[in-house]
Amino acid sequence: MPSTETALREWRYGPTQAERLVVGILRLEKYNNVHPQAPLGGPDNGADILCDRGRYFWVCAVYFPTTEKEFSAIERKFLHDLESAQVHGRNGFIFMTNQRLTRQQRNDLRDQANALRQECEIYDVERIRGALDSPEGYGLRVGYLHIAMNADEQVAFFANRENQLADLMTEQTQHLKVVLSHIDQIRQGQADAAQTMRVMAGAQDLSIDPVRSMDPLAVGEILSEPGVVKISLQLDPAMVLLFHRLVCFDLPSRIVGHLRTEEVVIRKASAAPADPTISPPKPADIRRLLTEVCTEWRTGIAAAKNPIEQMDAIVRLFHGILSVHPFLDGNGRVARSILMQQCLDTFGHVDMSRLDRGVPYYTSLQAADGGEFAPLKALILKAVSG
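The structure corresponding to this sequence follows.
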């Protein structure tokens, strides 16, 4: 029986089956709304598959030749598909191929896509093999490569299916609790809701994310574990990067765990036309400023003599991370995740679902931009009170 890599590289099942396999891999890799454009042949308007993940929308091109190709041929196909994908106006381009690519070759292709302001994910034969040779991928491997599972793989496959079902039930229960906890807030009045929607509709601040499964705003009350190290007390830029990698795995790989290298302009979440934008620090200053924010936090929390001073230190770090805007995307999630850990380490419990994410959230951040931290402090206190 051939190995997974051999079956992929010696592809014998035609382009239609290749696209169907890739659809399964994309779903396995947590892409959503995966739509093949013309799997049975015919015009596909320059895209084999359309999909999305997080707030990014992708075009996926599939290249499964029956023989090994030189890099020059792979590059030509990549550039042709990349050019065709531009007509769809999406954020990124995924290239799935059964060919082997070196790290440098993958970087060269990504750089060419990035030069066209396209995020880029490349799945070569080794990355695809890794997905298919996992418990989640065994079914696809059987269906499309006709490679049977051995006894150990069958045990792993069915155990994983049981775990997925249990996780799904737990997740749905948690979502239900979150929904129920916010019914009273929804009932506060149509006027407040309408105002919130107007503010959110005008916001272009990428640091303020909608609630999603990996955002701590969706988490109810949790308690700290006795005896564990209080990691937030040791916060430094390296740890901030770690938080980004942990909570922003849905973003393009070029962004995850990397400080921003581009200048950005953020639209204020305000209906007032005056001073509608904010310019975060330049990329060259980010590392220094992030270090200063972390140092101020460690000094402040160590010197705090009571809960009020502890909360002051927490609030200033939360606002400081958002002000530095260290990442191209995901700043809000990172700041909220660190906030959750700070509250756990400092107060022993936190309920992030109590954190108001409507108009008070935006206005308190804008007040803090002007040096007035009291509204933001009052908002965060709700997460540790009661």
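Residues 189-381 form a domain with the Fic-like fold fold (CATH 1.10.3290.10).
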